[in-house]
Q: What sequence folds into this?
């Protein structure tokens, strides 16, 4: 089993950030900037700029998208308890973030991919987090006190679901399909 499971598209499992060291503590009061050389206005400090030039952010390789019109994705999750869910992403999943002011945390995302599926009507969207090892992800979540569903095998991957502190659910999958993140995409 891998020491860290990388979830592409949203999070990278890192060490817990709570004061107790046991993972999620449900409090935003203990928030500390994970990457202090990222400024509130979204600009990077000198150390972050150096990491970007080397292609690394917070120890993870990052994709560089020079010359493309789209440079990333901004995902919005609506929550009945946004503070609890923000604390979950910060403390349990260990996501790097910036505080945009007044405790409004915006989390860094690993690379993402987009698939367009046929449908009878327009406007539907789904969000899946991606993992290289869904069983390892489940083991880490269990260790942090987060229950995950039994893995379901779909033709495109292995899927589990977890419940956020607000009661919302989030699906995580290990793709079995080809991914542009693992190859040189066609442009």
A:
């Amino acid at each position: 089993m891998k020491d860290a499971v990388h979830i592409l598209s949203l999070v990278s499992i890192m060490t817990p950030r709570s004061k107790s060291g046991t993972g999620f503590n449900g409090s935003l009061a203990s928030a500390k900037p994970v990457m202090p050389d990222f400024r509130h206005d979204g600009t990077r400090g000198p150390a972050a700029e150096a990491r970007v030039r080397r292609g690394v952010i917070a120890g993870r390789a990052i994709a560089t998208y020079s010359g493309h019109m789209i440079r990333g994705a901004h995902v919005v999750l609506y929550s009945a308890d946004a503070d609890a869910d923000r604390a979950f992403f910060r403390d349990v999943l260990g996501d790097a973030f910036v505080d945009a002011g007044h405790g409004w945390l915006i989390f860094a995302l690993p690379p993402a991919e987009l698939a367009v599926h046929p449908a009878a009507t327009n406007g539907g969207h789904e969000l899946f987090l991606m993992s290289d090892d869904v069983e390892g992800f489940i083991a880490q979540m269990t260790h942090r006190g987060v229950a995950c569903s039994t893995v379901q095998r779909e033709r495109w991957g292995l899927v589990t679901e977890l419940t956020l502190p607000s009661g919302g659910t989030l699906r995580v999958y290990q793709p079995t399909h080809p991914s542009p993140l693992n190859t040189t995409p066609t442009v």
